[in-house]
Structures are given as structure tokens and as C-alpha cells.
Amino acid sequence: MRQFPEQFIFGAATAAYQAEGAVGEGGRGPCYWDEFLHRPESRFNGDVASDFYHQYPVDLKLSNEYGLNGIRISIAWSRVIPDGKGEVSEEGLAFYDRLIDECIAQGIEPFVTLHHFDTPLPLFKDGDWLNRDNIDHFVRFAEVCFDRFGDRVKKWVSINEPWSVVAGQYIIGHFPPNIKYDVAKAIQAMHHMMIAHARVVEAYKERNLNGEVGIIHILESKYPITDRPEDVEAARVEDTLANAFMLDACFKGRYSEETLRVINHLMALQGESLRVEPDDEALLERASRLNDFLGVNYYASHFIAHHDGESGIHHNGTGEKGTSVFGLKGIGKRVTNPDVPTTDWDWPIYPKGLTDMLTRVHREYPNYKTAYVTENGMGYKDDFQDGFIDDTPRIDYIAQHLDAILDAIEAGVDVQGYFLWSLMDVLSWTNGFNKRYGLFYVDFETQERYAKKSARWMREVANRRQVLQPEDVK
Ligand code: BGP
User: Fold this and answer.
1) For domain 9-223+278-302+349-472, which CATH number applies: 3.20.20.80, 1.10.238.10, 3.40.50.720, 3.40.50.300?
2) Is residue 375 annotated as a catalytic residue, yes or no?
């Protein structure tokens, strides 16, 4: 039976705003979600979330007991620098000292992300990633973290999923500032995030801290639904926008001609052009060789058709299956592939898309050096029955994706770890608390944790370093 490499990380992921709660404690300043999720019509907010701020010793003990050896946490920028650019908060730093020390004490390696969707509110109001001044503030925050925690944290991630940030903010419009269909803004903001990432990589390397630095991208394969040339082009355009643009910036150190052809066309559709400053190219080039790893977040792939009709997007944020719409005029639309099952939130379950993506990165972007699958998992409305949660469909999903990773490893890709999203149930940004992903069920009334069947299964998988079937574990 196939086995994962000996040092393979079997971990799980969290993010500050989705897990910590305690938004008014420890001198924390607001991030943009605090304001947005306090509108009167909001169905939920992150005020308490999974109370990780207080419960982290419980969660880390469970991680240890269930055989995990890695965790993704993120440092809330606005806990460390409450307004994003002014005074550093000793209380904020001290919280992360305690959290990091506890990870290490439990034998769980922390992979620490600096930006996981949570720009401090004042900087968000100043334009977030569209404003280049915010790059300087972000680099300063990163430096504060490297200097304080760099002795203990050996795996650093600059930014989590730039594409999801800008797609949410400027295309789908379900993230503040809730702008729809503005592909030009999305592209410009991504370019600035790539500059921010490159500067953070250089800042880390200058310090000789004997650890590793990388970035996490959500990388979903985009397949034309037919082989008609217009569908093939539509899939290529979405792939360039969501994948190739940033892979080029991070791991080639320049946008390839083909990437620029598509990007310039998308910008021109809105009468815009990409703004690049004179030093950007040299910086991207230098940093592309300094990354130590690429984190790949993978949940789904998309099947794409040509689309000349009006733009239309509906985000399924409630789990009412079949309600999603995603079409961009002149760009393409996501369509159903009858052979591919979907989750209740309409995310196509297609593990082969992960193998295809990993092998493509290996082939086209050798500077990735090492890959970690830093998020993968299945949103599911878990059924709680007297403390017993049978989440067999989730186990099935994870098993298929672990197999897909083994396929990639066999094809020569260097994959060193897998982090399930999420460790325990957490807040889902645009869906709330009924879209659960955790290995551990959280009763959000009492904050009690309960191991799901998937946690017991994962323990066996990590122990044997082999993919097991759901029925292999009681
Ligand atoms: C990724 C994010 C996570 C997490 C996950 C699940 O994009 O990095 O923070 O939320 O997706 O997404 P959702 O909660 O929207 O189902």
C-alpha cells in the first residue's frame, strides 16, 4: 500500500478571525470584518467564533492526542498593531508568544500566516491592497513578527489566498467593500499583494533566521466544458486570472507574455491598464528564487464555458444546493459537469484537479521547491447525535484528495504536508457557522469540542501514513 514520506506533516488549519473570537480583548483593534459583520442584517459575526483565544490549550492538546504534527495559525495584524501602522501592542505579541509556545510544547509545528483576509480597519478604509502605502505597513508588521517569533516559528506564510481576497472584494462582492464585476481592481490589488509578498520574503531572508518562507495560493484547475475553441479560451482566461498571474509573479518572477496577453485584455475590457512601478520587476525576479515553499489550498475545480451574456454572480452562502451562478461577460461562466458531484454549497468535488494542479506547478514553476497542501476539506452540515458525529462523506472526500496527493508525489512533485481545513469548526466568512469543516465539532453555545469520526480516522491515517477507507475506523 502507498505511504506518505516519513517526515510528512499531517496537520489542520485555522485563521485568526475565524477561530479566535475575543475581538475586544488584549488591546486588539478591528479588522474590516468586525465592522462588516456588525451590520444589522448580518446573520453572524466573529465576536466569539470558536473562542480559540481562550481554548487554544484544549485544541492543541486534542491535536496532539489525535496524531497531528502541524497546525496553521494566523497572526491577527490588528492584535499586534491595533491600527495597522502605529504602536505595537505588547499584549498582542504576548498572546502569540503563549500560543506559539503551546504549539511547540504539544509537538505541533506552527505554520504561521501573516495575512489571512484580515486587514486592519483603518488601512482597509485607506484602500486596502489597492493603496501601495499599505504594502509598507504590511512589511513592517511582518518584520515585527519575524523579530519576535522568528526564533521559534520556522515556517512563515506571507499572504493566504490573494485571489480569494480580491475575487471576494471586487468580483463576487461578498467581502467588503462589496464591489461586483470589477476585474481591473482585482488584478491591480493582486499585483500589489505580489509586491508585498516579495518584500516580505526579502525581509525574512535578510534576517537569517534559519526557517522557511512562502505564500499560499488557492489553486483550482479550470477545465473547458467542451473542446470548442471559445470554451477553451474561456477556461484559459479564468485560469490566467485566478492562477497563472500570481504563480508567474511568485515563481517565475515576471508575468509571461501569454499571461500579459490575457491580463491586458481583461484590463482593457474596463478601459484600464496594469500599473507596474519601475522597481517591481527586479523585485519580483529576486524574490522568485528565494521562496522556500508554495502552499496550495484546494477544494474544487471548475468547468468553464464561453459567456457573452451579461455578468451575473450569485454566491450560495446558505448551502441550498444548486443556487450558485458565476458568469462574467466576455470572460466565461462556470457550468455544471454532470459527471462531477458537488457539495451543498455547489463546490465540485474533483480530486484529479488537485493532482493536475500539483503536476502543472512542478512542470511550469520549478522554483516552488516544496509544496504543502495547506487547506483542503469539505463544508458539511454535521449531524450531532449525543456527542457522536458520523461525517463519513467528509472522510470520503479527504481520502480521495489524499490519494490525489499520492498520485502527484508518484509523478515527482515534492509534497511535504497536508493541512485539513479546519482543525475545529470555525466561522465561515460568508456562510456563518452551519458550514462546518472541523475534525472537532464545536458546540458554539458551550464551546465544548467533540471528536468527529473523521478525527479518529485521521489519527489512523497519520499513524500509518496511508490512506484508509471510512469503514476502516469505527
Ligand atoms: C479558504 C480560506 C479559509 C476558509 C476556507 C473555506 O478560502 O482560506 O479561511 O474559510 O476557504 O471557505 P468557506 O468558509 O467559504 O467555505
Assistant:
1) 3.20.20.80
2) yes
